[in-house]
Specification:
With about 150 residues, the protein is an all-beta fold. It has 1 helix and 11 strands; from the N terminus they run E-E-E-E-E-E-E-E-E-H-E-E.
Length: about 150
């Protein structure tokens, strides 16, 4: 299977842009700050807008070219069913196809464990479902994962 060179794999969202409040990697789950800047989603296990930083194709940069503070970040707000090439943090629990994913609090996605006793607010934190298995439990760098947004 080939490695994608774009973040949005399937579906169409609304493309937006805002100045970066810090370093952002294409594939990061992002949010707006009160100053109107975009940053990596900063809180874990909370409700998140399905907004992901995308590659800066306008200036010929790919998915591995980070945005730095002050750059105009291109990001896309996507509907359920869209597929994205997102990121999993280092030392994250192993993910299998079908696992539900939520914000890890650093722009990355992590496996969420829900049960009958899980609060509604925690179940509402689910952003996506894994379309491939990824084990980054021994990793030291983020790795990419194909996901479908819920």
């Amino acid at each position: 299977m080939s490695t994608p060179n774009t973040i949005v794999l399937k579906g169409n969202g609304i493309r937006k842009e805002a100045p970066a409040a810090g370093t952002i990697t294409p594939g990061d789950l992002v949010e707006l700050t009160s100053a109107g800047k975009v940053q990596r989603k900063s809180s874990a296990a909370t409700t998140a807008q399905r907004a992901f930083a995308v590659e800066n194709e306008v200036v010929g940069k790919g998915i591995d070219s980070d945005y730095v503070t002050g750059d105009n970040v291109l990001y896309e707000v996507l509907p359920p069913g869209a597929e994205v090439y997102a990121l999993v943090p280092p030392s994250a629990a192993a993910i299998v196809i079908g696992d539900r994913l939520e914000s890890a609090g650093n722009g990355k996605l992590r496996k969420v464990s829900t049960s009958a006793s899980t609060a509604d607010t925690e179940r509402q934190s689910i952003v996506a479902i894994a379309l491939e298995a990824v084990d980054n439990s021994a990793g030291t760098d983020p790795v990419r994962i194909k996901v479908e947004l819920l």
